[in-house]
Amino acid sequence: MKNTFKVAVDGPAGSGKSSISKLAARRLGIKYIDSGAIYRAITLYFLEKSGGSFDSCDASLLGDSFSISQKFTEDGTTYTYLNERDVSNDIRSETVVKNISKISDNRQIREFVNSLLRRWAEEESVIMDGRDIGTVVFPDADVKLYIDASADVRADRRVKEYASMGKTVDVNDIKNQIIIRDDQDRSRGFGALKQADDAVYVDTSFLTKDEVLEKIVQIIKDNAKGI
Ligand code: DC
C-alpha cells in the first residue's frame, strides 16, 4: 500500500493559512485542497440560481444539479470549477462573502462538503485548509496545524492586499469585518472554527511568510510518516 499522509490546517480568515499551505504543498510535492473555496462555490451556485439573493437553500439539490471540482497546478495555483465552469475569481467576491454563512451554517451542506473533501483526499498525500479539517473532516490527520494571527495584523495584511490592487479601504472597517467573521466561524453549531487538541499552534503575527513556511514544513516532516 502507498504511504500517504494528511495535513490538516485550520485557522481564522486572513491568518495566511491558504498561501502557506499552497507553498508547503509545492515544497513537499503533494496536493493542496482549499475547502473554503467549496463553500464559496456553493454560495455562488445558490446566488446565481436565486437571481442574486436567497434566504435558505435546499441542500438536496446538490447531488443532482451540481458538480464541483478543484485543480492544484504545478505552479501552485488552485482553480475551482462549478459545473465545469472556472469560478476561481467569482467566488472571491464580496457578495459571496456576505452570503456564505447561510451555506456554511447548513448541516446537510457541511456533510456534503465533508464527504467530497474526504473523497478527494483518498489515496494521496494532501494538505487541506479550512476551519474544521483537524476536528471534523480528518480527525485522524497525521499532522494538524492551527495557524493564527491577531485581528490587527490580519486587517493590516488585508489593507495591503487591497492596496496592491489599487483599492483604498479603511483599516477599522476591515478589522470589524474580520471580528464578525471570526465570531460567525467560532459560533457555528457544527464544524465551528476550533483548534484541535492535538494541533500545533502557529502564530504568524510577527513572522515573515518564509519563516512560517520553514516552520510548518519542519513540523510536517517531523510528524508525517512516509515523507
Ligand atoms: O477560507 P475561506 O475564507 O475561503 O472560507 C470561506 C468561508 O467558508 C468562511 O466564511 C468559513 C467557511 N468555511 C467553513 O465553514 N469550513 C471550512 N472548512 C472552510 C471554510
Strand order of the largest sheet: 2-6-1-7-8
The average pLDDT value, as a whole number, equals 93
Q: Shape, please?
A: globular
- Low-pLDDT stretches: none
CATH architecture title of the largest domain: 3-Layer(aba) Sandwich
Bound molecules: 2'-deoxycytidine-5'-monophosphate
How many structurally independent domains? 2
Describe this structure in words.
The structure is a single chain. With about 230 residues, this protein is an alpha/beta fold. The chain has nine helices and eight strands. The chain has helices spanning about 15-30, 35-50, 60-65, 95-105, 105-120, 135, 150-165, 170-185, 210-225; strands at about 5-10, 30-35, 70, 80, 85, 125-130, 145-150, 200-205. The strands form two sheets. The protein has a five-stranded parallel sheet with strand order 2-6-1-7-8. Helix 1 (about 15-30) packs across helix 9. The longest helix is centred in the last third of the chain and has 17 residues, at about 170-185. Bound molecules: 2'-deoxycytidine-5'-monophosphate. 2'-deoxycytidine-5'-monophosphate binds near residues 35, 39 and 185.
Write the layout of secondary structure elements.
Elements: E1 6-10, H1 17-28, E2 31-34, H2 35-49, H3 62-65, E3 68-72, E4 78-82, E5 85-86, H4 94-104, H5 107-120, E6 126-130, H6 133-137, E7 143-148, H7 151-164, H8 171-187, E8 200-203, H9 209-223
Parallel strand pairs: 1-6, 1-7, 2-6, 7-8
Antiparallel strand pairs: 3-4, 4-5
The structure holds 2'-deoxycytidine-5'-monophosphate.
